[in-house]
């Protein structure tokens, strides 16, 4: 017995740990979302490139495209361009799209379309960047102005981050005479960034321009300039207008560096306009889309690999163990008596077609009528098989009558009794009448009530969409369930009803 | 919640056995599934008992096919009273008790007159499985009618009271006298409203009883106290019960016996899943006793000894006997 117990314990531990590990792997490593509602924004970004091509001249258009190693992951990328050859290449931290054509003329329109979403997982490569730079040489008044500005900045800062923030703030103070001198009347963002760079170079702090796109739907947007600097561990981002650190979550880095977004050889009046829209996507759909662009094809080996129709069947089937678990708990822990083990689960499945409320009424009605017919047949002293045949035929007729009546009354529910519930109904009546014969009417009533309660509870649990999704997506959870069932197999404690059954012992 | 927990602890402290424990630790452990037919089919039980020299109501004959119904007359012979039973019946259904003959017809215990044709029809119904579990074909057996000892008259209402002893590996664990009531319509089945009365294993003196999960001291129909009655030939019952282990091979059984006024203790049937209400009848839990027996068995096994039924009865009586009815 002890060896058996040890065996059982090892088996339970094994099953549960496999279940937990595989599920955890799916959730944390593969990044499969835990609930279906976990939808993510799917962004569609269209960059429309327009320019006037010079006649009889080859055209080469170069535009930056967002690098793929950031917080957003690209699901789909497409280039819509007639007669142009397209290539994408990596330049430093940037990606650059090159459209080229031998001979075009007139107004040209090219599209770059990108679908992306927040990245669930995946380790971003460790960022790298320069931590030192040489000073930009300055002469005369400008040098004095820069030094005058730097002195208080040094005083008010503690590290690279505060230093840059303070520099941006000082430069943005356009009333400062030194700033006025350096900007020379041009107070555009790009000019101010130039001065910030100048000042930072005096302190040997490297700085990089970051061109970002704000992800906001249905608004005309253009790239915004941000500043970033590498502190040896990570990139620090700053808003050049306010000096505030940190890149907001809705910013997508399009490109970095000093070069313009687009450059056209053999054309003029190049213009890029962005339109964005977003849509919500079911988590699994999203995972599937992401899948195409990532090398993890985990979905191949889950139930999502099945054809859609089969999936729907499995979504019902995979919940049956939950129903069985409910019955197990109700019977062995609570002590409710039910008609067999699986009849309540089958009734719960039948409730899918009839709905719970109506199903209970229907089952009660038909079972009651079937049983009263049975007790009438009792008087005729018929043998078991002919008697059951009569009962079953009666049930079929009864269901037909109910369907007809409810249809005439305009209750479409009555038609919901199809083949499956009917088979279960007749089976229930048969089993119930056997129980009636063996244990008496009172017991049969108790069992019928327990069955209805168990079936309703199982039905409710089996139809929680979140639970269905979870178990369908992480089927190894069932192993944990099996572990629990195995443990229940050697449960020796009292059932809840026994605490009441044996209460006579406590009245001393 | 806390109240329930206290109740749980109190029951556990008294060694009350629950269904889960009975199934996991006793029925599943000691009763091999393949041996169930021996106790489920009364004919097999009876044959085994006769082979082992254990007293059972005398078997007049078996009818297994429609053709054999012709032999009914021959089987009944000169007996004026007998019982017709389905071999695999449950809950006492399909049992016909003929008490006398009357002008070429038969008279049941309740005084109803039945013809020979009606008897044949009844047997035919038994054969088609009208009374058997799940409607399987069945056999009918015709046997000696037990006449209950008059000792039970004062505390019993109709029917035949029987004595159930729970036996673990041949060691009697607990005993109960089951008395039919008006509610149970003469059947000695606790679920159907019969009374269970605890019996002291050592002396055979009745203790208080249980009726519908409550403790009682008086019979609800006769209002006579049920305790303090000395059952005759108690040691006979105990030996009979203890011997049933060898008879069927099942380790945890309920042995149902009757006391016939002339033949003494007889075995009626065996039950592989004996109920738990015997605990209420005896106001005592089963678990402490079964654990004591299991410990004793382990000790015997170590020493390589096997005890005879008489020794086993003595062991049980010494350990579990001489309880006085709680007042």
TrEMBL record, chain A:
Residue span, 7 transmembrane helices usually fused to an inactive transglutaminase domain: 260-505
InterPro entries per UniProt: 7TM_transglut, Transglut_i_TM
Inactive transglutaminase fused to 7 transmembrane helices domain segment(s): 25-184
Spans traversing the lipid bilayer: 6-28, 316-336, 356-376, 388-407, 413-432, 467-487
Pfam families (alphabetical): 7TM_transglut (PF14402), Transglut_i_TM (PF14400)
Keyword line: Membrane, Transmembrane, Transmembrane helix
UniProt name for this protein: Uncharacterized protein with transglutaminase domain
Source organism: Azotobacter chroococcum
TrEMBL record, chain B:
Keyword terms: ATP-binding, Ligase, Manganese, Nucleotide-binding
SUPFAM superfamilies registered for this protein in UniProt: Glutathione synthetase ATP-binding domain-like (SSF56059)
Pfam families: ATPgrasp_ST
GO molecular function, one term: ribosomal S6-glutamic acid ligase activity
A GO cellular component annotation in the UniProt record: cytoplasm
InterPro entries per the UniProt record, alphabetical: ATP-grasp (IPR011761), RimK-rel_E_lig (IPR011758), RimK-rel_E_lig_ATP-grasp (IPR039523)
GO annotation (BP), single: SOS response
Superkingdom classification of source: Bacteria
The keyword ATP-binding belongs to this UniProt entry's keyword annotation: yes
Domain ATP-grasp: 46-297
Record-given protein name: Alpha-L-glutamate ligase-like protein
Organism: Azotobacter chroococcum
């Amino acid at each position: 017995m002890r060896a058996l117990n040890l065996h059982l314990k090892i088996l339970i531990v094994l099953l549960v740990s496999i279940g937990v590990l595989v599920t955890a792997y799916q959730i944390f490593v593969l990044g499969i979302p835990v609930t279906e509602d976990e939808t993510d924004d799917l962004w569609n970004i269209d960059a429309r490139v327009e320019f006037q091509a010079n006649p009889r001249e080859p055209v080469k258009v170069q535009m930056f495209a967002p690098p793929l190693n950031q917080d957003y992951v690209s699901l789909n990328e497409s280039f819509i361009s007639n007669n142009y050859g397209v290539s994408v290449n990596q330049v430093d931290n940037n990606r650059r799209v090159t459209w080229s054509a031998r001979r075009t003329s007139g107004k040209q329109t090219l599209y770059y379309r990108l679908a992306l979403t927040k990245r669930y997982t995946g380790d971003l490569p460790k960022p790298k960047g320069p931590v030192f730079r040489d000073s930009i040489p300055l002469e005369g008044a400008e040098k004095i102005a820069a030094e005058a500005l730097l002195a208080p900045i040094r005083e008010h800062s503690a590290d690279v981050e505060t230093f840059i923030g303070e520099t941006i703030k000082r430069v943005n103070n356009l009333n400062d005479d030194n700033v006025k001198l350096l900007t020379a009347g041009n107070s555009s963002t790009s000019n101010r960034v130039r001065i910030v760079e100048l000042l930072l170079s005096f302190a040997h702090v490297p700085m990089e321009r970051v061109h970002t796109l704000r992800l906001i739907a249905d608004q005309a947007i253009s790239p915004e300039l941000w500043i970033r600097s590498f502190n040896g561990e990570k990139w620090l981002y700053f808003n050049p207008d306010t000096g505030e650190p940190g890149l907001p979550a809705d910013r997508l880095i399009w490109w970095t560096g000093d070069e313009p977004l687009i450059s056209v050889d053999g054309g003029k009046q190049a213009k890029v306009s962005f339109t964005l829209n977003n849509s919500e996507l079911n988590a699994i759909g999203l995972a599937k889309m992401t899948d195409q662009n990532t090398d993890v094809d985990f979905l191949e080996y889950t139930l999502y690999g099945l054809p859609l129709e089969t999936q729907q069947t499995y979504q019902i089937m995979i919940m049956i163990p939950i129903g069985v678990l409910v019955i197990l708990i109700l019977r062995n822990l609570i002590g409710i008596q039910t008609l067999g083990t699986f009849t309540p689960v089958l009734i719960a499945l039948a409730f899918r077609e009839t709905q719970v409320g109506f199903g209970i009424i229907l089952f009660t009605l038909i079972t009651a009528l079937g049983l009263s017919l049975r007790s009438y047949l009792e008087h005729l002293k018929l043998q078991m098989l002919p008697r059951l045949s009569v009962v079953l035929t009666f049930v079929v007729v009864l269901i037909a009558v109910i369907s007809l009546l409810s249809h005439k009354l305009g209750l479409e529910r009555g038609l919901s009794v199809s083949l499956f519930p009917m088979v279960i109904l007749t089976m229930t009546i048969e089993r119930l009448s056997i129980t009636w014969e063996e244990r008496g009417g009172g017991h049969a009533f108790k069992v019928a009530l327990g069955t209805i309660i168990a079936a309703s509870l199982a039905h409710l649990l089996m139809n929680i969409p979140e639970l269905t999704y979870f178990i369908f997506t992480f089927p190894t959870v069932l192993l944990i369930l099996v572990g629990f069932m195995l443990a229940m197999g050697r449960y020796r404690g009292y059932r809840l009803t026994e605490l009441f059954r044996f209460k006579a012992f406590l009245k001393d | 919640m806390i109240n329930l927990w206290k109740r749980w602890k109190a029951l556990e402290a008294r060694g009350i056995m629950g269904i889960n424990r009975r199934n996991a630790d006793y029925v599943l452990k000691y009763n091999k599934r393949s041996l169930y037919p021996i106790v489920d089919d009364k004919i097999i039980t009876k044959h085994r008992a006769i082979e082992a020299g254990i007293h059972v109501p005398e078997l007049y004959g078996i009818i297994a096919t429609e053709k054999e119904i012709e032999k009914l007359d021959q089987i009944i012979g000169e007996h004026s009273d007998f019982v017709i039973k389905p071999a695999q019946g449950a809950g006492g259904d399909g049992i016909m008790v003929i008490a006398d003959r009357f002008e070429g017809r038969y008279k049941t215990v309740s005084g109803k007159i039945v013809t020979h044709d009606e008897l044949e029809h009844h047997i035919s119904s038994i054969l088609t499985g009208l009374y058997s579990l799940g409607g399987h074909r069945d056999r009918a057996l015709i046997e000696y009618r037990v006449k209950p000892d008059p000792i039970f008259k004062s505390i019993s209402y109709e029917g035949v009271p029987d004595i159930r002893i729970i036996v673990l590996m041949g060691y009697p664990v607990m005993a109960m006298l089951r008395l039919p009531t008006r509610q149970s319509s003469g059947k000695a089945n606790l679920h159907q409203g019969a009374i269970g009365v605890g019996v002291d294993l050592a002396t055979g003196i009745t203790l208080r009883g249980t009726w519908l999960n409550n403790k009682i001291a008086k019979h609800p129909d006769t209002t006579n106290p049920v305790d303090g009655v000395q059952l005759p030939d108690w040691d006979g019952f105990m030996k009979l019960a203890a011997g049933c282990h060898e008879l069927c091979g099942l380790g945890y059984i309920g042995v149902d016996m009757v006391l016939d006024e002339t033949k003494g203790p007889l075995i009626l049937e065996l039950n592989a899943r004996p109920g738990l209400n015997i605990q209420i009848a005896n106001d005592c839990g089963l678990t402490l006793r079964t654990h004591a027996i299991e410990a004793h068995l382990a000790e015997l096994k170590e020493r390589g000894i096997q005890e005879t039924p008489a020794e086993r009865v003595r062991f049980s009586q010494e350990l579990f006997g001489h309880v006085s009815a709680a007042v």
